[in-house]
Structure formats: structure tokens, C-alpha cells
């Protein structure tokens, strides 16, 4: 009985593998082997044996004749004799026809097989076939050819030097025959090399991955693996194709390899490439059918030729149809990263104001909102890694040169949620210039960043992800940057020439001689304080803008910024951070900072711009001698007129009255001697102390209050539910001596559950746990705090930078702390008293009111005249005279800070 089947493959010139048609659900059909009766064709060789020797070298040509004639076509066949099955695949000896032609007759006619000797009685059909064989033999056809072909080498194993083979054939189109389909996307092919040799290789289809088919006993195959394998087999098995080898399996770029001479890579078992059939690229059909997924990391090989884009389109088709692997794919058109109400705009224009690293920048949008952005799907080198530090700096500089201060187009791709110690981050694509170039793509192509490998179903990625992968492939091929394998030492730290005043002074004359010096703004500490980097000399310095005073910003959590200090810093940061500028130097300050001017774009004076914006004031003393003094005063006048920032509440008439009042305030006060006790000494930010004025009703009232206060707290004081101390609250607080005192909360931390307080009757300051703080009972609120803040008149102790600072503090404490003294109020600065302290036991003080502890400290070389802090100084001529005499005496005796010579600070 004649049956019909499809020829799946050809084993040799006389044997076929047949299959039926697929099942209703696409199930792979059953197979059987058919050996054509009475024919004997040469067997092809394998890895373990050569082609059948009696017919060398015609085994391949014999197989090729039958392959080209029948593979993929329907044949009619009949079984004459059944053989034992092999791996459950039936085997038969029989006959077959294709398109009405008897296959055995066609093979004999072409000379690609011989007739077997038969012991049975010959039939007319046998005579006919014998005649066909003789005709082929006489004509020298097929295996009967008398002139042998040149010896052909067949390499059944992968090339030993896979890298060299890849280099020789990469991207070239090679004729091939698919010999085996291992799974839907992995094939074993026979390359027909131009030399005539055959090379077997394993090749994975570039850009796709099909479910794996199990090759081990008892191991299950992945879902849809059989369907994918059949899809490929039915179209490619034993078909003539063209192969393009593109790469070897390296799913991630490998930057920063260790060692300058890495060992040779191990031989690979698979190449990655394209398998092209006359009907097209099977990879695209596999994806569109839903039997393969797109492999992202192959984008580098395929994006340039548009191959990755075609695969993405095929993937979109499969998702729309929800076919096979994409049955559970999310509906298209619904983006998990779309902007939500109150969230960032999807696309907007902004100005780049800061480069944080090789993959993070800050921008300001049209509404003035600052955003810190992460370049989507991009990972820059890390400065903290010694192997990456050089490239991290190069990447940061690459972005700075191209983006800083530029108007760019930002597209928010997704929001990366907060995770562990990492804050939430807006991930975006940034384009700039007339060609809308993607800065991340340029960065990666230069080898200054890598591409993040996302998980398969992770849609939170750059919309240009394939282009980024292609850019990385270019950098990888050309061994650029992080892919070069070179370990370049980390950049040397820059020399800080503002580290000390002495070091800075040595550079002043050189800077003055040069005039304007080019630099890059590296950091901004306050509106008028800049850290500059000099690339040519690898130096950094601190530049303080001369002629102005900008409000200070808090240096730590315990400090508070001056009004508009934050705004002044923000203005300077947005305008000058990381910009290429020029600066001029006039002099230096005590800490090693250079005082001078900063220019942007040759003409824009940073000091003038800050004053004009109302974020700095003119410092007349230092401004009057500057060439641009007039510009500063004009800018300040404009800011006052517009009432900008600092000048929001400016009242011109009140300002004039204040100036007159200040002139009067600087006049000497009438002598006012009081008895005091120094209750607390504070050395932070200079020297300040608290005093209690004795022999007053307040002190007597305080003694009575403290007795009642102590009695009140001797019992259990109930803490009100939900009580949390807040800044400015009057409270009862337990001091380190175990007693309770009245206090005022300066600041409180609900997180740490502690508050910084000032004890209002003694002036001490301390940090107290919430558990030791109670609300102050109203009956203890009537008496004002008895501690008053004070400082020394006319003088200041040596600064913290001096080695005599600690000695000066100890000396002041020994002379004053806890002692009853006589004080004269020389000046009042709001609640702060400027005091001349007199030791009542000093006999000289009884004769001369200017013989005081203030002068004694100067005489001992532990203090100097405070010409800047005491504007009233010149109104007290006797004090100035006595202080100058004390300085002269200290110098003669080499006392204190004059031990090694005249080091008195110049405070002109």
C-alpha cells in the first residue's frame, strides 16, 4: 500500500528520514527511516569515521543529489520489508516516488548509487534499473567518474582556534548546509569553504533564543521547545543557506580585565551569527511566531544593519497576537514608567548645571526645579575603584565639556524606586545639539561607560537600548576605554595650594603677574567662596570673591544658615559650577584662600552678578579700592530698588536712620561698673561667655525660685502624653549634675530623641535626652533668665589655627570662670554685652580702670586687638593706647604667640 510523507532529511544517497504532517495543535509529527531497496550509496563520514572508503570522495555528492531532489517535498512510498527500530524510530526497506518519478531510478540514472547484487529472480524492473546503471557507468557519471576530485578535508569538530577563525570569517557570507537542528535557535551546519574544505560548526542564531530541548535522560524540555525545534527543522534542516558568523558567546562586556597580558581564551563550542535562507532570516520568523525571545545583548551585533529593529518589530507582532512565549505579555500601549500625576514630565527641556559622575547629571527645568538624572541603561566607571578611577574622571570630563551649561532635551524613561541605601532616581535619555545626539550613546561608544544588562522582561530601560548595545560593540571591537584591557593608574591627587596661608602666599605674586588665569569651578562652598581646579598644573585653590559679602550657609547640622545663604549658594552653583572660568588674585586671607575676582565668558563678573541678584552685599572697606567698585555699588542699588532677596524688606529712609544710629552707637558709653560672675565659657566660633549680674533682685529671686524648682522636681513629674520638645520651647531639663534647671530648646531631633538646650539662668549649653526634659511649669516662667551673653571688649583670643589657642582658653578660664569680677559695659550689640573685666583683687586696677584682664591677655601674647569686631574701638583712645603698650611689651618679652618673632595679625 502506498503512503505519503514529507522528506525531513537525507541520511545518504539511498536513505531518507520521513515525517508526517504536524498535529492539530502544532505537535511535532512522528518519523520513520526509509532505505531505498536494492541501492547501495556511499555513507557519509562522521566525527568518528571517514566517508565510506569504497566510494571516496563521492559520499557527500551522492547525499547532495538526493537531498536537493527531495528534502522538504512530499513523497509516496511503500514498505517492502521492516527492519528493527532504532530509538523507537521505525525503519523500512522500500520504494519511493516524488512528483511521479521513481527515486531509485533517478539515483541510478545520475550514477550516485550502485545496484546491490540480488539472489532472487530478476524482474523487468530489475533489468530496467540495471540498464540505467550501465548507462551511467559508461558515461562516467556520479560514483563512476574515472577522474577523482581533489582530496577534500572535512573538519567535524569546532575550530581549535575559535578566535582566529572568527577574525578570518567574521561578517562574511559563507555557503552552508544545515546538518542538524539542536533546538529552535541552535544549529549544526556544514560550511562549504571556498577552498573546497568542509568545516562543521555549531551556530546560535543572533538576536534570539528559543526554549531549550532536553538532551539528558529524564530532564524535561522547556515549554514550546519541541514546537520551536520543529518550526526550524521544517524550514532549514538540510537546506542550503548562507551563514554570517558575528561573534562568540560573551553575554557581557568585560571591562577592566586584570593583567596586561590576559591568557588566551578557551575554545568555544558555539558561534553566534545569522542563518539566511532565500526566504529570509528564520530568526525573525521564530520571534514573530512567538517561539523565540529577543536576546538583548546581541543588539551590538545586529543594530547597525537594522537586524535588531526587525526583531523588535517581530516581537511586537508576537506580543499583539499573544502567541506561545508571549501569551502572558503585558498589553502594548500601557507603560509601567508613564508619568503620573505630580510626577516628572515625560519630556522637557532643561539646562545642565552639574555633572556628578560618568552617568549622573543635574538639570534645572523651565520652572526652576532641579532634578538629578541617571542616564538610562548606562553604567559609568566608578571613581572609588582604583582600576576605574582614570576612566571615571575621563567620563565625567567628557560629559562636562559637552553638557555643562547647555540646553538639552530630557526624556524620562522610568523611575528607579528607592532600594536600600540608594535613593529614588529619575532615569532619562538626554539629547543635545542640532542633531539631537544621545549623550549616553556617545559616552558608551568612546568606551567611557558600559550598558546595563537588564533582565529579560525588564521594560525599564532606554528606548535606544539597541543603539547603546551597538555603541558598546563598536567600543569593544576597537578596544576603546574601559574595554582596552589597559590598567591606567588613578589620577594623582591635585595639590591644594590653599591648604595653609603660608603656602598660598607664595603663589600670589605669580598669579598677579599672569593676570587672568583659566580654571574650572570644581566646587562652591558658599555664594562667594569657590574651589577652582587648574588642569594645566593639577592644582586646586580656594577663591573668595573680593568686595562683597554673601550670606553664609550652615556647615553642619548644628549650624543654621544666614537668611538667603542657601539661595546665594544655589545661584552660584547653577551659574558657575563646573564652568570654565578665569580668575584674578589680589591677596590671600588667613586660612589660605585667595581673594580676587571670577569671570565667566571673559566679561561676566561673578561678584557683580551676585550683588545684582540681591544675594550678596557690597563690603565697602574692601570694595572701594577695586577697579569694578562702581559696578558693585550700581548693582546693589538696582537690587535695593527691585527689593530682591536680601533687600526684600529694604526701607531707604530706615536705612539712613540706621546709619546715623550706628555712628552714635560707636560712641563710648558712660562707665557702668557691675559685679558679675562668669557662669559659663564657650569656645566654639571664638570666645563667648555667660555672666550673672550680682547684687540684684534677679539673683535673689533666682535663689528662691531654684529652691522651689528643686522641691517641685523632687517628686515624680508626669510627662504629658505625646510631649515632644521643639525649638524655642522653655522646658525643665536635667543637667549632668543630676539637678533640674530652667532651659530653652535651641533645636530638637525627634529621630535621635534628644535636644540641644541652653540653661537660661547660667548660660551652659548641652544635649539632653528627651527622657530628661519636661514642660516648664507656668509658675516658673515669670522670672527672666539670669544669664547674659557677653564677650571681651577690644580684644580677641588667638585663633584656633594657632598652637597657643588652647593655652589662651585655659588662661582665660583660670582668670575668670566661676569668679566674681567687676565688669564695665563698653558696648551693647543687641543682647550681647562687650565687657571690660577687672579683677577686684588687682591693686593696679583700683588706681587705673584700664588695667583689666583684657589688656593682661594681650600682654601675655594670648590675645590681639580686634580691629574688625570692635567698630567702637577708636572711640576709646585710652584703651587703644594701653593695648598698643601691651603688644609692645609682649613682643619684647617674646610672650605667647610672639615667642618666635613678630606674628601679629594684620587687620587693616
Automatic annotation (TrEMBL):
<dbReference type="GO" id="GO:0031047">
    <property type="term" value="P:regulatory ncRNA-mediated gene silencing"/>
</dbReference>
<feature type="domain" description="Tudor">
    <location>
        <begin position="723"/>
        <end position="783"/>
    </location>
</feature>
<feature type="domain" description="TNase-like">
    <location>
        <begin position="515"/>
        <end position="649"/>
    </location>
</feature>
<dbReference type="InterPro" id="IPR016685">
    <property type="entry name" value="Silence_cplx_Nase-comp_TudorSN"/>
</dbReference>
<feature type="domain" description="TNase-like">
    <location>
        <begin position="346"/>
        <end position="485"/>
    </location>
</feature>
<keyword id="KW-0963">Cytoplasm</keyword>
<dbReference type="Pfam" id="PF00565">
    <property type="entry name" value="SNase"/>
</dbReference>
<dbReference type="InterPro" id="IPR002999">
    <property type="entry name" value="Tudor"/>
</dbReference>
<dbReference type="GO" id="GO:0031332">
    <property type="term" value="C:RNAi effector complex"/>
</dbReference>
<protein>
    <recommendedName>
        <fullName>Transcription factor</fullName>
    </recommendedName>
</protein>
<dbReference type="GO" id="GO:0004518">
    <property type="term" value="F:nuclease activity"/>
</dbReference>
<dbReference type="InterPro" id="IPR035437">
    <property type="entry name" value="SNase_OB-fold_sf"/>
</dbReference>
<dbReference type="GO" id="GO:0006402">
    <property type="term" value="P:mRNA catabolic process"/>
</dbReference>
<dbReference type="InterPro" id="IPR016071">
    <property type="entry name" value="Staphylococal_nuclease_OB-fold"/>
</dbReference>
<dbReference type="GO" id="GO:0005829">
    <property type="term" value="C:cytosol"/>
</dbReference>
<feature type="domain" description="TNase-like">
    <location>
        <begin position="172"/>
        <end position="328"/>
    </location>
</feature>
<keyword id="KW-0677">Repeat</keyword>
<dbReference type="GO" id="GO:0005634">
    <property type="term" value="C:nucleus"/>
</dbReference>
<dbReference type="GO" id="GO:0003723">
    <property type="term" value="F:RNA binding"/>
</dbReference>
<feature type="domain" description="TNase-like">
    <location>
        <begin position="1"/>
        <end position="146"/>
    </location>
</feature>
<dbReference type="Pfam" id="PF00567">
    <property type="entry name" value="TUDOR"/>
</dbReference>
Amino acid at each position: 500500500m502506498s503512503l505519503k510523507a514529507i522528506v525531513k532529511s537525507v541520511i545518504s544517497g539511498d536513505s531518507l528520514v520521513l515525517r508526517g504532517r504536524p498535529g492539530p495543535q502544532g505537535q511535532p509529527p512522528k518519523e520513520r527511516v526509509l532505505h531505498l531497496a536494492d541501492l547501495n550509496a556511499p555513507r557519509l563520514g562522521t566525527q568518528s569515521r571517514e566517508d565510506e572508503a569504497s566510494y571516496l570522495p563521492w559520499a557527500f555528492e551522492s547525499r547532495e543529489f538526493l537531498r536537493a531532489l527531495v528534502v522538504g517535498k512530499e513523497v509516496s512510498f511503500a514498505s517492502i520489508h521492516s527492519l528493527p527500530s532504532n530509538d523507537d524510530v521505525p525503519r523500512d526497506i522500500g520504494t519511493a516516488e516524488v512528483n511521479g518519478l521513481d527515486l531509485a531510478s533517478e539515483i541510478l540514472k545520475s550514477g550516485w548509487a550502485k545496484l546491490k547484487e540480488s539472489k532472487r529472480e530478476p524482474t523487468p524492473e530489475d533489468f530496467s534499473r540495471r540498464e540505467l546503471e550501465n548507462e551511467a557507468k559508461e558515461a562516467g557519471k556520479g560514483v563512476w567518474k574515472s577522474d577523482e576530485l581533489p582530496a577534500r578535508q572535512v573538519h567535524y569538530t569546532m575550530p581549535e582556534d575559535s578566535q582566529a577563525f572568527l577574525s578570518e570569517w567574521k561578517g562574511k557570507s559563507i555557503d552552508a548546509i544545515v546538518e542538524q537542528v539542536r533546538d529552535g535557535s541552535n544549529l549544526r551546519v556544514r560550511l562549504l569553504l571556498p577552498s573546497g574544505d568542509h568545516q562543521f560548526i555549531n551556530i546560535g542564531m543572533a538576536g534570539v533564543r528559543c526554549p531549550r530541548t532536553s538532551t539528558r535522560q529524564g530532564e524535561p524540555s522547556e515549554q514550546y521547545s519541541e514546537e520551536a525545534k520543529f518550526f526550524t527543522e521544517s524550514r532549514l534542516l538540510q537546506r542550503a543557506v548562507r551563514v554570517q558568523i558575528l561573534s562568540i558567546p560573551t553575554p557581557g562586556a568585560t571591562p577592566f580585565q586584570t593583567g596586561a597580558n590576559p591568557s588566551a581564551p578557551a575554545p568555544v563550542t558555539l558561534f553566534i551569527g545569522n542563518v539566511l535562507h532565500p526566504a529570509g532570516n528564520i530568526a525573525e520568523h521564530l520571534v514573530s511566531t512567538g517561539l523565540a525571545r529577543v536576546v538583548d545583548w546581541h543588539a551590538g551585533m545586529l543594530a547597525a544593519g537594522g537586524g535588531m529593529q526587525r526583531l523588535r518589530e517581530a516581537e511586537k507582532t508576537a506580543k499583539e497576537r499573544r502567541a506561545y512565549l508571549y501569551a502572558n505579555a503585558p498589553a502594548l500601549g500601557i507603560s509601567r514608567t508613564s508619568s503620573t500625576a505630580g510626577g516628572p514630565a515625560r519630556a522637557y527641556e532643561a539646562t545642565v548645571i552639574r555633572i556628578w559622575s560618568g552617568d549622573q547629571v543635574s538639570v534645572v527645568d523651565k520652572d526652576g526645579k532641579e532634578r538629578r538624572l541617571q542616564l538610562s541603561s548606562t553604567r559609568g566607571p566608578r571613581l572609588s575603584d582604583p582600576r576605574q578611577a582614570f576612566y571615571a574622571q575621563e567620563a565625567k570630563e567628557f560629559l562636562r565639556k559637552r553638557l555643562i551649561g547647555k540646553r538639552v532635551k530630557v526624556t524620562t524613561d522610568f523611575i528607579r524606586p528607592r532600594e536600600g541605601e540608594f535613593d529614588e532616581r529619575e532615569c532619562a535619555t538626554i539629547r543635545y545639539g542640532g542633531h539631537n545626539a544621545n549623550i549616553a550613546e556617545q559616552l558608551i561608544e568612546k568606551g567611557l561607560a558600559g550598558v546595563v544588562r537588564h533582565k529579560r522582561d525588564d521594560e525599564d530601560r532606554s528606548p535606544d537600548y539597541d543603539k547603546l548595545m551597538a555603541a558598546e560593540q563598536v567600543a569593544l571591537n576597537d578596544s576603546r576605554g574601559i574595554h582596552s584591557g589597559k590598567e591606567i593608574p588613578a589620577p594623582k591627587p591635585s595639590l591644594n595650594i590653599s591648604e595653609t596661608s603660608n603656602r598660598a602666599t607664595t603663589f600670589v605674586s605669580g598669579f598677579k603677574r599672569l593676570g587672568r588665569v583659566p580654571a574650572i569651578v570644581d566646587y562652591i562652598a558658599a555664594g562667594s567662596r569657590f574651589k577652582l581646579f587648574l588642569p594645566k598644573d593639577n592644582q586646586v585653590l580656594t577663591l573668595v570673591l573680593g568686595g562683597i559679602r554673601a550670606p553664609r550657609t550652615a556647615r553642619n547640622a548644628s549650624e543654621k544658615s544666614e537668611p538667603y545663604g542657601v539661595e546665594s549658594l544655589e545661584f552660584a552653583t547653577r551659574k558657575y559650577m563646573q564652568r570654565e572660568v578665569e580668575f584674578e588674585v589680589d591677596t590671600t586671607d588667613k586660612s589660605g584662600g585667595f581673594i580676587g575676582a571670577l569671570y565667566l565668558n571673559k566679561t561676566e563678573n561673578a561678584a557683580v552678578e551676585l550683588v545684582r541678584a540681591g544675594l550678596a552685599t557690597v563690603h565697602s572697606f574692601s570694595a572701594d579700592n577695586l577697579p569694578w567698585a562702581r559696578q558693585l555699588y550700581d548693582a546693589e542699588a538696582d537690587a535695593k530698588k527691585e527689593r530682591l532677596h536680601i533687600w526684600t524688606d529694604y526701607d531707604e529712609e530706615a536705612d539712613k536712620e540706621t546709619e546715623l544710629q550706628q555712628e552714635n552707637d560707636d560712641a563710648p558709653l558712660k562707665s557702668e561698673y557691675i559685679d558679675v560672675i562668669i557662669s559659663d565659657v564657650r569656645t566654639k566660633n571664638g570666645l563667648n561667655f555667660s555672666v550673672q549680674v550680682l547684687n540684684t533682685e534677679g539673683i535673689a529671686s533666682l535663689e528662691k525660685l531654684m529652691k522651689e524648682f528643686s522641691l517641685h522636681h523632687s517628686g515624680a513629674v508626669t510627662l504629658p502624653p505625646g510631649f515632644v520638645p521643639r525649638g524655642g520651647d522653655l522646658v525643665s531639663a536635667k543637667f549632668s549634675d543630676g539637678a533640674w534647671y530652667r532651659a530653652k530648646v535651641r533645636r530638637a531631633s525627634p529621630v535621635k530623641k534628644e535636644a540641644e538646650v541652653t540653661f537660661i539662668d547660667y548660660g551652659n549649653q548641652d544635649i539632653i535626652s528627651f527622657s530628661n526634659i519636661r514642660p516648664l511649669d507656668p509658675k516658673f516662667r515669670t522670672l527672666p533668665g539670669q544669664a547674659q551673653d557677653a564677650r571681651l571688649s577690644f580684644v580677641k583670643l588667638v585663633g584656633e589655627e594657632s598652637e597657643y589657642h588652647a593655652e589662651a582658653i585655659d588662661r582665660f578660664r583660670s582668670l575668670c570662670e566661676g569668679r566674681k569680677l567687676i565688669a564695665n559695659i563698653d558696648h551693647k550689640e543687641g543682647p550681647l554685652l562687650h565687657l571690660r573685666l577687672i579683677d577686684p583683687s588687682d591693686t593696679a586696677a583700683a588706681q587705673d580702670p584700664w588695667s583689666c584682664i583684657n589688656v593682661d591677655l594681650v600682654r601675655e601674647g594670648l590675645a590681639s586687638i580686634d580691629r574688625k569686631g570692635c567698630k567702637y574701638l577708636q572711640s576709646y583712645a585710652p584703651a587703644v593706647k594701653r593695648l598698643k603698650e601691651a603688644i609692645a611689651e609682649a613682643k619684647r618679652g617674646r610672650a605667647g604667640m610672639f615667642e618666635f618673632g613678630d606674628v601679629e595679625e594684620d587687620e587693616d
